[in-house]
C-alpha cells in the first residue's frame, strides 16, 4: 500500500479552508435567516442562522457586535453580511459576520423599541412627573457648547424671565461618547443641588445623530434626577427615550425655555399656535409614513406575485392528496383481499358445500363399492368355474365314461380281489348301467392263481 497517496485529516481540512478563503464569492456574503441557539455573551457571539431547510453556524466578534444597536433575540429574522470560511478544529464551515440588521426594520428602530419595551415594563415611563416651578431662579442646560440650542434658550429666558440664571453644562451630543457625557452632566447638576429646572437637548438630525438620547444610561439618569427635567431633542416629529422619561417634553429649545419660565398671555397664544403647527406636522408626517409603508407593502412580492404564497402549499397538497389516495387504495385492496379470504373460508365451511362434498364422497364410495362388488363377483364366478371344472374332472361318471367301472357286493364297494370268492355274485357299475356277474376264478397278483 502506497501511503504517500493518503492525506491526514488536518491536511484535507487546511486544503478545504484554503478553497473557502480564496473563493471571491464567499468574501462578501449577504445572508438572511432566522436566529437560533443565541445566548448573549460578554465577548464574542456564537449562534446559528437557519431557514426551513438548512442551518449555518455563525460567529460575530466582540468589536463588530459592539456596533449592533439592538439586542438580538431567539427566532428573530436577520439580515447579515460577512465572509464564509472553515473552522479547522471542527471541520465545519461558518459565516463570520461583520454587520447585522433585523429583517424588515432598521437596527436602531428595533433597539429603540426593545429599550422602550424594557423601560416601560420597569415603570420608568409611568413614574410620577415632577412639577415645574413657576418662578425658577437657576436653570441648568445640558447641551452642546457651540450649538444653536443654548443660544435659543438664553434668548427666550432673557425675554420672558430675565432674573433667572441659565447655567450651561457643556456636553457632547453626538457620537459614541455622547451618552456617557450626557449622563455625567445630568448627575453633576443633581450633585450641585441648587437648580430648579434642568433642560437637556440638541438640534435636529437623523436617528443616528439623536441616538445618544435613546441610550439606557441617559434614560436612567433622567429618571433618577431630583430636578424636574425638560427634554428638547430633535424636531417636533422626533421622539426619543429621553422624551418619554423626562417630566416634560418640548418640541424645540425655545419651547423648552418657555416651559421653564412663567407664562404670559401672548405666550399662551403662541403656544396654541405651536400646538396647532405641531399637530399639523405630526399628522403630515404620519400620513407620509403611512404612504411609504403602503408603497412598501404594495411592492412586496405578496402583492406582486400572490401565487408565490401558496405554490409550495399547493404542491404539498398535491403530494399529500396522492399519498392519501395511494393509502386509501392500499387499504381498500387489503380489505378486499381479507374479504375474499374470509369468503373462501366461509365457503369451505358452508353446509351446502359440506353436503356437496359428502355427496361426492358417497358417489365415489358407491362407485368404489360397485367396482369392488363386480370384481368380487367376477372372482367368485371364476373360482366357481374352476372348482366346477375340478369337480367335473373328479366325477366318477366322467371316469367311467372313459371305460372305467367299479364293483359292489351286497351294496359294498369291492376294491380288492381277496374280498371275493368263487361263486360270489357282484354288480359291475358302468356309466350307462349295471351288470350282474358271477365270480368263476380269482387271481391275485401276489399269491398267484386260485
From TrEMBL:
Subcellular location: Cytoplasm
Signal peptide boundaries: none
MF terms (GO), sorted A to Z: exodeoxyribonuclease VII activity; nucleic acid binding
One GO cellular component term: exodeoxyribonuclease VII complex
Ranges of residues in domain Exonuclease VII large subunit C-terminal: 129-437
The enzyme's E.C. designation: 3.1.11.6
OB-fold nucleic acid binding domain location: 7-101
Example GO BP: DNA catabolic process
HAMAP family xref list: Exonuc_7_L
Main function: Bidirectionally degrades single-stranded DNA into large acid-insoluble oligonucleotides, which are then degraded further into small acid-soluble oligonucleotides.
Entry protein name: Exodeoxyribonuclease 7 large subunit
Organism: Limosilactobacillus panis DSM 6035
Amino acid at each position: 500500500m502506497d501511503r504517500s497517496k493518503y492525506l491526514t485529516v488536518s491536511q484535507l481540512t487546511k486544503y478545504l479552508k484554503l478553497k473557502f478563503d480564496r473563493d471571491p464569492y464567499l468574501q462578501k456574503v449577504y445572508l438572511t435567516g432566522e436566529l437560533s441557539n443565541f445566548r448573549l455573551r460578554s465577548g464574542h457571539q456564537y449562534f446559528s442562522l437557519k431557514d426551513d431547510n438548512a442551518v449555518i453556524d455563525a460567529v460575530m466578534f466582540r468589536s463588530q457586535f459592539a456596533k449592533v444597536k439592538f439586542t438580538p433575540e431567539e427566532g428573530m429574522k436577520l439580515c447579515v453580511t460577512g465572509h464564509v470560511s472553515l473552522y479547522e478544529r471542527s471541520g465545519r464551515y461558518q459565516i463570520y459576520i461583520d454587520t447585522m440588521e433585523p429583517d424588515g426594520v432598521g437596527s436602531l428602530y428595533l433597539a429603540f423599541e426593545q429599550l422602550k419595551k424594557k423601560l416601560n415594563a420597569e415603570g420608568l415611563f409611568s413614574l410620577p412627573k415632577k412639577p415645574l416651578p413657576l418662578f425658577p431662579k437657576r436653570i441648568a442646560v445640558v447641551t452642546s457648547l457651540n450649538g444653536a440650542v443654548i443660544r435659543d434658550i438664553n434668548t427666550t429666558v432673557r425675554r420672558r424671565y430675565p432674573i433667572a440664571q441659565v447655567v450651561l453644562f457643556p456636553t457632547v451630543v453626538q457620537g459614541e461618547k455622547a451618552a456617557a457625557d450626557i449622563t455625567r452632566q445630568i448627575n453633576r447638576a443633581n450633585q450641585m443641588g441648587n437648580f430648579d429646572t434642568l433642560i437637556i437637548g440638541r438640534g435636529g438630525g437623523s436617528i443616528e445623530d439623536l441616538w445618544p438620547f435613546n441610550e439606557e444610561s441617559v434614560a436612567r439618569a433622567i429618571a433618577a434626577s431630583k430636578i424636574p427635567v425638560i427634554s428638547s431633542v430633535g424636531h417636533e416629529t422626533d421622539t426619543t427615550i429621553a422624551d418619554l422619561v423626562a417630566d416634560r417634553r418640548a418640541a424645540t429649545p425655545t419651547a423648552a425655555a418657555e416651559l421653564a419660565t412663567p407664562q404670559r398671555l401672548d405666550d399662551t397664544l403662541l403656544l396654541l399656535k405651536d400646538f396647532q403647527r405641531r399637530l399639523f406636522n405630526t399628522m403630515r408626517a404620519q400620513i407620509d409614513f403611512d404612504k411609504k409603508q403602503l408603497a412598501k407593502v404594495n411592492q412586496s412580492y405578496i402583492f406582486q406575485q400572490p401565487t408565490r404564497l401558496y405554490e409550495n402549499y399547493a404542491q404539498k397538497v398535491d403530494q399529500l392528496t396522492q399519498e392519501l389516495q395511494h393509502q386509501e387504495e392500499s387499504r381498500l385492496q387489503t380489505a378486499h383481499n381479507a374479504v375474499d379470504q374470509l369468503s373462501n373460508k366461509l365457503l369451505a365451511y358452508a353446509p351446502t358445500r359440506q353436503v356437496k362434498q359428502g355427496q361426492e364422497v358417497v358417489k365415489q364410495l358407491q362407485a368404489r363399492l360397485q367396482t369392488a362388488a363386480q370384481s368380487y363377483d367376477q372372482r367368485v364366478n371364476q373360482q366357481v368355474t374352476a372348482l366346477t371344472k375340478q369337480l367335473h374332472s373328479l366325477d366318477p361318471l366322467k371316469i367311467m365314461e372313459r371305460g372305467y367301472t367299479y364293483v359292489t357286493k351286497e351294496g359294498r364297494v369291492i376294491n380288492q380281489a381277496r374280498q371275493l370268492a368263487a361263486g360270489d355274485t357282484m354288480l359291475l357299475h358302468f356309466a350307462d348301467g349295471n351288470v350282474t356277474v358271477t365270480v368263476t376264478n380269482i387271481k391275485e397278483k401276489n399269491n398267484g392263481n386260485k
